[in-house]
Structure formats: C-alpha cells, structure tokens
Amino acid sequence: MTTQEAVPLTQYSPGGGCACKMPQSLLNDVLSTMRGDGLLAAVSGPLWVGTDPADDAAVYDLDSRSLVFTCDFLTPVVDDAYDWGRIAAANALSDVYAMGGRPLVALNILAWPADLDRELLAEVMRGGAAAVGEAGALLAGGHSITDPAPKYGLAVVGDVDRGTILRKGGGRAGDVLVLTKPLGAGVVGTAVKRGEADPATVRAAVQAMTRLNADAAAVARAARLSGGTDVTGYGLIGHLHEMAFAAGVAARVRPGEIPLLPGVTELIERGCAPDGTRRTLAGALDEGWFNPGPLTRSGQILLADAQTSGGLLLAVEPDRADTAVAHLRDRGDRAAAIVGDLVAGAPGIVSVRGGHP
Predict the structure, then answer these.
(1) pLDDT of 107-139, one tens digit each?
(2) Per-position DSSP letters for 103-163, written without gaps between them
(3) What is the pTM for the complete model shown?
(4) Could you tell me the residue range of the domain that residue 325 belongs to?
(5) Residues noted as catalytic
(6) 150 and 218 share one domain
C-alpha cells in the first residue's frame, strides 16, 4: 500500500468500480438495437464469440490459435492509489480468465483530473503494471485523457485453447455452481466512500479484489469445463441470470453456502450498498426473473451486490464439483464453494434455495 491515503480517491467519483455499470436492461436494449441496425459483427467464420449472444470477451479464431479481446475500466473503489491500480487491472484481466484464456498483452486506459497529485497517478500505474506482470502479460502502452473523475483499466488481448473456451451458455441442467471468491466488494467500497469501513474489512476486500482469476481459469481448463463467467457489476444473481438464460435453463442459489467478506452483513444493515446493486435488485424483481422467496432484504442485496474483480462462477458436473472446489482451494482460492445449481425451467429464472447468507 502507498503512503498517499490522505487523498480520498473515492471522493472524486459519484460511484465506485463496477457498480457504475450501465443498468443490465438498458445495455441489452442498446445492443439489441445495434444488432438490428447491423452495426455489430455477427458471430460467423473466424469470430467465434461476439455480442450475439453477449459474453465476457470476444474470441477471434486464427489458424493456429484463438485470440481473446476485452477492455474494462472503472472509478476508484479504495483510497489507496496502488491498490486501486492493482484492482482495476485484475478486474480487466478477469474477462480473459472468464473465457478460459491467458492474457498476453495489455494497454492502459486512463482518465485523470488535472488537479490530482501526479504521484498518485504514478502509483495507480505501478499497481496496474504489477497486476499485469503477475499475470505474465506484457504492458505495451495505452491512452490517457484529462477528466474530472479518475478512471483506470486495461484493454487486454489473450489466447485460449479451442477446446477449453468457457461460455456463459456452456452449462446444462444438473450442473452445480461453484463461486471462487467471496461477495461483498460493492458494500465495502460504499463503506470506504462513506468513511465507515474498518481497516480489517478493507484489507480483506483488497486481498480478494487483487487476487487474479488465473488459478481458477487453470482449474477450469484442466477440468475441461465449458460453462462460466465472472461475477462483477451485476452481482451474483445478475451474472447467473445471464448464464442461465444463455444456457436455456433456470438456476437456484443457496445463500447459506455463499462466501462473504467479513462485516458486510452489518454494513448493509447500516445502509452501505451501491446504487448499482440496488438497481440490479430492483430490475430483477420488476422483470420477474429473480424469486427471492423468504430471503431477507439484506440477503437479497448481498446476492445483487456489484462486485469489482469478483470471482469466477463455474458450472460443474455434480460428481466432479467437490474435486473442483478442492483444487481451487489448493491453488489459493480459499473461499471457493458450491453456491447453487442449474435446473430445467424457464430460461434465466433465478430462485433462492434456503435462507439468509
């Protein structure tokens, strides 16, 4: 961590991290309009994965390999500049891992206020470079602008073996769902912004958000899994809804089995939940694809909490799930757990099985 903590980076933006994502329904409407107008490339020939259906990254097939393309940037989720740089880079790299791939080359995407300390800017860039280096990728340039709200992220190119591509629609009824990181990053980020997060909680959140999904992707490749995504700005239920809809199945979550960051339930009770989390939950309930059953309001918020650099959500055959969880934990994803399953039913419907997390 840096010594620049006196400058509250989180105060430079009205939102934080992936909680600033465009609402799920609005994004879907925009993409649908663009597809209808012929403005987005159709999935055909060498373009294996694009926007119809949408996935975590694009995949373009060459004669000898398949390339993965993605970009992601976000506003501060913590006040420490170096940690924010690492988190933002890990979040951008995650989309390559969510496709089962390996990052190769990254470019910086940066927006910075003219009146904000240059040393903080350097720390953000150092943090991002550290994450890219840890991923074994090359940082090869980028683009920057002056902007009132600081933003940082990466454009990333990776590669993926044809036989181990993870797709949102790759699961099937009967698969169990394995989550590799704890939930609660959005709640903690809101608490940081309000000055209500204790140091231990922030440290736990930073540790989770800076952990790369590289090992989780390696476990998925070794097991030759085909269904998965990463949990980011639309929360567990939002990204599970996308997985289930793409696979043509319904999904159930087990709140009592879901790993959580320390203290997040108490923070929710104090009102610390991002606007993006509340939007996702409201949309899910209004559109009728989320059935919370007896789950408390706090529990519902946790399931919708907007994660930044969240874990992978993997669809695994039931007889291999315990082994997959054991391998994930052995490789450092200590919180990995079975959190639900995919079932036959109306595509995209997410329901709750059990009680409060």
Answers:
(1) 999 999 999 999 999 999 999 999 999 999 999
(2) EEEEEEEEEE-TTS-HHHHHHHHHHHHHHHHHTT-EEEEEEEEE-SS-EEEEEEEEEE-GG
(3) 0.91
(4) 165-352
(5) 18
(6) no
